[in-house]
Every structure is written in structure tokens, then in C-alpha cells.
Amino acid sequence: MYELKLHKNLTLEKWAKFSKTQQILMIANELNRLLNCIDANLSYEALREGMERMFELIDLTINTNSGGFQKEFLRWRESFGEFYLLDEREFKKSTDQIKAFYRVLMLANRETAELLD
Asked: Do the beta carbons of residue 24 and residue 110 sit within 8 Å?
């Protein structure tokens, strides 16, 4: 695991103590922040930093879980990674797709799925 740049006080051991539900909700919170940054028309640099914060949490989740849960998060991370490669204009037009990623993330766990709608 690489050294975390944006969550310096967080370790694999500390992250592993959180339940899967808590881990998903913290990642979902970063997605919400990302959408709020787009709505507030913040700089592309701020958007990319938001994505990097989210990727750090996803990587922690992948490294502290195993089996099907881990595989699904690897797929989700790879798919969302395509947004990181978009230019600013294209990224800011993809809020509906980001909301769809949020929904898929929340459906990864029974407790978080119950929080939708």
C-alpha cells in the first residue's frame, strides 16, 4: 500500500476497524463532496483532489477486504478511474454518471442500500 497523501492520519489497520457499511458511507461522502464541488464551480484542481481523496479510501477498502467484496470494488474503482482521465469540461458534464456511481456504491451493502431513496 502506498503512503496516503490526503488522509495522513489514516492507516490500513485503522480503516480495517470500520465496518463495510462505514467504509462505503465514507466513500459515498467523498462522492457527494465531489458533486458539491461541481455545483459550486470549483477549480478543476479541487475536483481532482476530491477524486484522489476518494481513491485513497477505495484503495484502503480494497486492501482491507477480500473475496467478492474486494473484486467488486476493484471493478468499481477501474470504472470510476475513467472520470479522472476526463478533461475539465467533460468531467463537469458528467454529474448524472457520478450520481449513478454513487447509487452502485450504495447498493454494494444491504445497510447502505436501505439508505437510498
From this structure: no
- Burial class of 63 by CB neighbour count within 10 A (0 to 12, 13 to 18, 19+): middle
Write the burial class of residue 46 (CB in 10 Å: 0-12 exposed, 13-18 middle, 19+ buried).
middle
Q: How confident is the model at residue 94 (pLDDT cuts 50, 70, 90)?
A: confident
Closest by Cα among 24, 7, 19 to 115: 24
pLDDT band at 3; cut points 50, 70, 90? confident
Q: What is the pLDDT of residues 38-76, one digit of tens each?
A: 899 888 898 899 999 999 999 999 999 888 889 999 999
From 79, 92, 12, 80, select the one nearest 46 (Cα to Cα).
Answer: 92
Distance CA 44, CA 86 (A): 11
Tell me how far apart the alpha carbons of residues 107 and 104 are, in angstroms, rounded to a whole number.
Answer: 5
